[in-house]
């Protein structure tokens, strides 16, 4: 039966700019990272942090996240790379698709922790700032699966069905399927908006905005994963990622409850250096130069007290009419 409407798949996942190949999957990942850093930076500054801090820490978080996402995919789908007839070198071809969000978040968090530690910033505060940006990045990144014609759902004749081209080498059978990439993309946009709203409404802090993002995402991932037909390991009748979603959801909810009781409200200071800059600029304390002059004079020994007094007197406005 001919369908009245469907979502077409691109004929190729690569666009050539002269001799340079621009792969759709990588392009979506890159755009997603930029959006996450941009939005995270705005939220960080609004919470009292410095401009550029989110980008500086992302230099650590993004590479760790990419490695973690790829490792999770390769480990959980090892038969695609390390069985007879397969080439293990393909495990390094990240542009062909295959990033596990669970591994990306886990190792990405490690990279972010390193970056935060170098700046004296609490990781939970940083995670709260970038949480909705990560959800938007996932929404954009899922379109990379559309370019690669992968990770679609069960067959369907719905008007928004995704048309897949047959490819024996890739194990694809021509037909129309549930566009699970689109379902997850829309779900992630909803999660991002939910986190932004809840953060404004309830002043979430100490990692709770990030925990809300994780909990909300796993709910959607569970039912979307249930629709997918690509090969996956099963445990007690459920796909491995379904079980991962359940475990991560429970952990996120537990963190929300425990954190709300232990550390209610939001952090007053998210970046100590930014708070110090603000204090100096507002006149709450002496300017750094005045502090240095007074300190040098006091440390000079003989006559040091007189010199320090002179510095202080010069700094005070004249009392004469």
Would you spell out the secondary-structure blueprint of this structure?
Layout (H helix, E strand, L loop, with lengths): L13 E4 L2 E4 H23 L6 H24 L24 H19 L3 H19 L1 H6 L13 E3 L10 E3 L2 H23 L5 H20 L6 E2 L2 E2 H23 L9 H11 L5 H11 L5 H12 L6
Antiparallel strand pairs: 1-2, 3-4, 5-6
Would you kindly provide a brief summary of this structure?
The protein has 321 residues and is mainly alpha-helical.
How would you sum up the global shape? Answer: globular
Head-to-tail CA distance between termini: 97 Å
Order of helices and strands: EEHHHHHEEHHEEHHHH
The biggest beta sheet reads: 2 strands, antiparallel
User: Could you list the spans in which at least 5 consecutive residues all have pLDDT below 50?
Assistant: 285-321
The class by helix and strand makeup works out as mainly alpha
- How many separate domains make up the residues? 2
Report strand order across the widest sheet.
Answer: 1-2
Bin the helical content: 55-70%
Biased composition (Low complexity): 271-300
Keywords: Cell membrane, Membrane, Transferase, Transmembrane, Transmembrane helix
Binding site for a 1,2-diacyl-sn-glycero-3-phospho-(1'-sn-glycerol): 142
Organism: Streptomyces niphimycinicus
